[in-house]
Amino acid sequence: MTIADNKKAFFDYFIEDRFEAGIVLEGWEVKAIRDARVQIKEAYVTIKGDELYLFGAHISALPTASTHISPEAVRTRKLLLHRQEIDKLIGKVVRAGYTLVPLNLHYKGGRVKCEIGLAKGKKMHDKRATEKDRDGKREVAAAMKTHAR
């Protein structure tokens, strides 16, 4: 079940490969995510040393959060992948000029997972073409809907 999608990633990037990663979260963050108080539109994945981190994901604390913790809405969260997957991703980013972007957050087996995409940036003309295709599909769907009546 999807919690949050990053629709902007598909507009700004060509997604070439996808990986599913676990996230290291605190208890209040899990509760907030279950309440759908998360946003990953501005988030991206960074490499520090030989580990991957989710940076810029915004998780708003619930108003009923404990008083003895100070929730930080935008903090760097570690992503959990197998070593060979991490090495492959780091190699692609460093050598081939790819970018890592979070695509969505979802549940799998009761745990919160982050799907990250290995992406190449789109040029402005590619973005315009994507928008043109989307508008064309929308017009065709509208015509089909009116024709069915």
Automatic annotation (TrEMBL):
Residues 123-149 are annotated as: Disordered. It comes from the Bacteria. Pfam families: SmpB (PF01668). SUPFAM superfamilies: Small protein B (SmpB). GO terms for cellular component: cytosol. Belongs to the SmpB family. Required for rescue of stalled ribosomes mediated by trans-translation. Binds to transfer-messenger RNA (tmRNA), required for stable association of tmRNA with ribosomes. tmRNA and SmpB together mimic tRNA shape, replacing the anticodon stem-loop with SmpB. tmRNA is encoded by the ssrA gene; the 2 termini fold to resemble tRNA(Ala) and it encodes a 'tag peptide', a short internal open reading frame. During trans-translation Ala-aminoacylated tmRNA acts like a tRNA, entering the A-site of stalled ribosomes, displacing the stalled mRNA. This is SsrA-binding protein. It comes from Duganella alba.
